[in-house]
Design a protein that fits this description.
The chain is mostly beta strands. It folds into two domains: about 325 residues, Tachylectin-2, Chain A (5 Propeller); about 120 residues, Galactose-binding domain-like (Jelly Rolls, Sandwich). About 0% of the residues lie in helices and about 50% in strands. The protein has one helix and 37 strands. The strands form nine sheets. It has a six-stranded mixed sheet with strand order 1-34-33-36-31-28, with no helix packed on it. Strands 5-4-3-2-7-8 form a six-stranded mixed sheet, with no helix packed on it. Strands 6, 9, 10, 11 and 12 form a five-stranded antiparallel sheet that branches. The longest helix has 4 residues. The protein is elongated. The N terminus is likely disordered.
Length: about 475
């Protein structure tokens, strides 16, 4: 059997990254995989704080709420944990702490407060008490408690002091978020009543508790909720309930948090299941925005990756994800740039072994290469490189409900494994990234050699120079 250098999606360093690559393994400045799932962002001065669930133990049980800092949203340094387990409480290592939430704020030296009303981050700043307040889903290992938890701190990363867990207004709360409006009022967004009904409730002025319910969407079955307020319109973005598997995330709009809320609309092509992701956090970027989702891998939660895409609003006032394999942000200008690359069609490659040419209108050019792996290969010759590690996006179809994988070898080098989650159907195309060392000039890339399992059908690859 061939010796493989195994990377999950793309485990080649993304330290000091100037670009965002959805689905790639993202490393911090110490070279470790970023563990901040169910993300949220807080800005204090020129520093962004990313909070989330540390899943390094591949478990649903609580390990830590992590805290990372950045000034550019691409290069992140890990700080001390924001919240750590306490034995004998609802945040012990035998319990569940998920989706530590709040809403994005721009804070200057903890005093002068400019609010940018957006969705769920773990922490909000309370000007009355001059403290940071964290809300999270607090539960038992069998998800039977269905509570919210609250913790406070005097600095953004804490450490936070756990205040307690409870059922808001006596009702279930599982997946939840916090929305802070531009008048300083904060709201809990939560899946309630055994995930059947979705509720919005007002917090007290300390942000410690819930005082009254302001809206209910009966039978909505929503989770992973968050709100972005743009031009006076509340955009509620959420998924439906399908466990760890993704589904088409939706947006609902209203001019009041009390509703009425519009009918649901997809934020991405429904067949892609939001590009195999679940909403975690959304923020405004000038007149546009950023969608931040999780691509959960339920059998290896610590290997779950982050799906960050630009968001744009149409003339009808609805947000839509911009699918970009590689992209960058200009925070000062409030803009984003999607990188362009060079496409190479799989059907133009050299087929080997049991590989077969497939015809279907869903493929670019109407063709792709199937039966890869288990003896089938495809070779791309004359792939132009610039003499460094470059991002390569693989466009594929995987109609299975389970993940597949493929291998790639550059110029006779070792095989790198690239994970391929379900694309949503055999006629649905998705992309996954891998970083490959390419020499300047012509290169040869071989896909699916040395693997016993079948890979997804390969439509094309796109090679990028932006790094």
């Amino acid at each position: 059997m061939a010796t493989w250098l195994i990377y999950v999606l793309s485990a080649i360093a993304l330290v000091h990254a100037a670009v965002i690559v959805p689905g790639a393994t993202w490393l911090d400045t110490s070279g470790n995989v970023i563990q901040a799932h169910g993300a949220g962002i807080l800005k204090v001065g020129s520093t962004y704080y990313w909070f989330g669930e540390d899943k390094v133990l591949d478990s649903t049980l609580f390990h830590a709420v992590s805290c990372y800092t950045s000034t550019d949203l691409t290069t992140w340094a890990r700080q001390s944990n924001a919240l750590s387990p306490i034995s004998g409480t609802m945040i012990s290592t035998s319990n569940v702490v998920e989706r530590p939430k709040g809403t994005i704020q721009n804070l200057q030296a903890h005093q002068s407060l400019t609010l940018a009303p957006c969705l769920r981050l773990p922490v909000i700043f309370n000007t009355k008490n001059q403290e940071y307040v964290m809300w999270f889903h607090s539960d038992t290992s069998n998800y039977g408690a269905a509570m919210v938890g609250v913790a406070t701190a005097t600095t953004p990363c804490g450490p936070f002091t756990y205040k307690g867990s409870f059922k808001p207004l006596g009702a279930d709360s599982r997946d939840e978020g916090i929305f802070l409006d531009d008048n300083g009022s904060a709201y809990l967004l939560y899946a309630s009543d055994n995930n059947q009904n979705f509720k919005i409730s007002l917090l007290d002025t300390n942000y410690y508790n819930v005082t009254q319910q302001v809206s209910i969407m009966n039978g909505a079955t929503l989770e992973a909720p968050g709100i972005v307020k743009r031009n006076g319109v509340y955009n509620l973005i959420a998924s439906h309930t399908s466990g760890w598997d993704p589904n088409p995330n939706k947006v609902f709009t209203a001019t009041s948090l009390a509703g009425p809320w519009s009918a649901q609309v997809d934020i991405a092509p429904s067949t892609t299941n939001t590009y195999y992701s679940q909403n975690a956090f959304d923020m405004l970027l000038g007149t546009n925005g950023i969608y931040m989702g999780d691509r959960w891998k339920s059998d290896q939660l610590g290997s779950s990756t982050y799906i960050w895409y630009p968001l744009t609003w149409s003339s009808s006032g609805l947000p839509t994800i911009v699918h970009a394999d590689v992209w960058s942000v200009n925070l000062a200008a409030g803009t984003f740039t999607a990188a362009t690359g060079t496409s190479y069609e799989a059907e133009s490659g050299t087929l080997g072994g049991s590989a077969e040419l497939l015809s279907d209108s869903s493929f670019s050019g109407g063709k792709a290469v199937g039966f890869l792996g288990n003896g089938g290969t495809v070779t791309f010759n004359n792939v132009v490189g610039i003499g460094q590690a470059q991002w390569v996006s693989l466009y594929y179809a995987n109609g299975d409900s389970t993940w597949r994988n493929t291998t790639v070898s550059a110029n006779g080098g070792a095989n790198v494994i690239v994970q391929q989650p379900s694309s949503g159907g055999g006629h649905v195309i998705q992309s996954v990234p891998v970083k490959v060392n390419l020499k300047s000039g012509a290169n040869t890339l071989v896909f699916s050699s040395g693997q016993a399992s079948f890979a997804g059908d390969l439509d094309k690859i796109i090679v990028y120079t932006a790094t």
